[in-house]
User: Fold this.
Amino acid sequence: MKIIFLLVFLCEFSFSSISQEKRDSTKSYRNDALKIFIDCNMFDVNYFRENMKFVNYVRDGKEADVHVLFTTQNTGSGGQEFTITFMGQLKYKNMNDTLHFDTDANNTDDEKRLQALNMLKLGLIRYVVKTPLCKQIGINYQSDESENEVVKDKWDNWVFNTNVGGWFQGEASVAYSSIWSSFTAKRITPGWKIINAVSNNYNENFYIIDDTTHVTSTNNSWGARNLTVKSLNDHWSAGGGINFSSSTYNNIKIKATFSPSVEYNLFKYSESTRKQLRFLYAIGASSVKYIDTTIFDKVKEILYYHSLGVAFQYIEKWGSLSVSVSGSQYLHDLTKNSVDVSGSVSVRIFKGMSIGMSGGFTFLHDQIALPKEGASTQDILLRIKQLQTTFSYWNNININYTFGSIYNNVVNPRFGEE
Assistant:
């Protein structure tokens, strides 16, 4: 009997030792797993943590072996082209790679993030093979019999979108309402970009001041536009637009504009998700009819103008920078002009700290549509009419600092988000 107990004890000890050895081995593999930082605001990173467990997730980019940057731009079909840039750091320095994938307008959020997960796994393989965890990685291939079929598009790349909506809010003595609608038809190919759009917006505010005083303010605007652009090469594009618009706020009964344009991008358009420096010049004419006589005693007129815009955008693992400057002049009087400057920057200052700023400033010297009669106190308080000014501005700033454990592998959705 003692011999049987001894054999059982030895078996249990051996099994326990083997299990402990396996756990220690697995723990060692996890400790040596690839550390990645996912720089992405399109998808919930928790989804990647839950479905890709062969890496360690860190919350600070400077602690990562690989900094993974997601960027995106819209495609002609109403979908998106995603770019995933893998930037090696520490012992993986100079091991960089870039992958792309496309989604269409019919893809659900779940389908998009599944594609993102698969591409992320593929892009990380070249780094994972250099870690001990590669011994537990396998690769499967699922063939698709239709992968060589030629796609026939019965819509010829045309994409249509319609939107109708309303917003309503009220109290006992105040009521607000807004109704809008829009329709767009787009055809975007590598060679051409064609956008047709119409829209309308109606706003009404109602106030009860006392038993005998009721105030109602309304403003309405609508627009129709066409934009046609031809891709000339990797850096040049040419085209133009035709626009029709009306706005009670801006004292415009109807305005028709035609503007041929040309654009030059210092970088190739194929690199636009990461960097771009575009120069856009336009020259055009507008035929305008006003609701009320303007401060220049005009009820209608034809205006000629030109404009120049410069837009710069750069996205890197340290953050992002975006700056745009645009200006326009009326050719009959060059003192009638406006200049708009806006920009945003987001920078990781040091481990755990980042700062973000954005803002804009507009110099206005071209308000030729202002009504001669001016604005009443009611117009000013209710923002029914545009007011005379020489400038406008906006800005915001945020600072974020996080410290503690560098790892961020665990997902716990209880009681909602943090």
